[in-house]
Amino acid sequence: MFRHYKASSLLRQTLVGRTSVSSSLNCASAPQIILVHSQNRSYSKLNQDDVNHFKGILNKPEVAVIEDLEGTGSSSELSGYNTDWLNKLKGNSKLALRPSSTEEVSQILKYCNSRQLAVVPQGGNTGLVGGSVPLDDEIVLSLNRMNNIIGFDKNYSILKTQAGVVLEKLIEYLEQFGYMPPVDLGARGSCHIGGNLATNAGGIKLLKYNSLHANTIGLTAVLPDGTILDNMRALRKDNTGYHLKHLFIGSEGTLGVITEAAILCPKIPAAHNVALFALDNFDKVEEVLRASKDYLSENLTAIEFFDSESNNILKDHTKHRNPLGYSHNYYMVVEVSNFDNTSTAEENTKIIEDKFFGLFEKISTVIEDGVIAQDSSQREAIWNCRERIVEGFFKEGMTFKYDFSLPIDKFPVFLDKIRDKLGDHARTGGYGHIGDGNIHVNASIKGYDNLKLFKELQKELEPWVFSLVEDYEGSISAEHGIGSFKAPYFELNKSNKMVSVMKQIKGVLDPNGIMNPHKLFD
Amino acid sequence: MKVLVGVKRVLDYSIKVRPNAAKTAVDLKGAKIMNPFCEIAVEEAIQMKEKKKAKEVIAVSIGDKTAAETIRAALAMGADRGIHVLTNQRIDSDLQPLAVAKIFKHVFEENKTDLVLLGKQSIDDDANQTGQILAAMLDVPQATFASEIEFADDGDLIVTREIDAGLQKVKISVPSVITCDLRLNQPRFAKIPDIIKAKRKKIQTLKLEKLDIDTEPRAKTIKVDNPEVREGGVMVDNVDDLMSKLREDKII
Question: Which residues of chain A make contact with B39, given a CB cutoff of 8 A?
Answer without folding.
Answer: 374
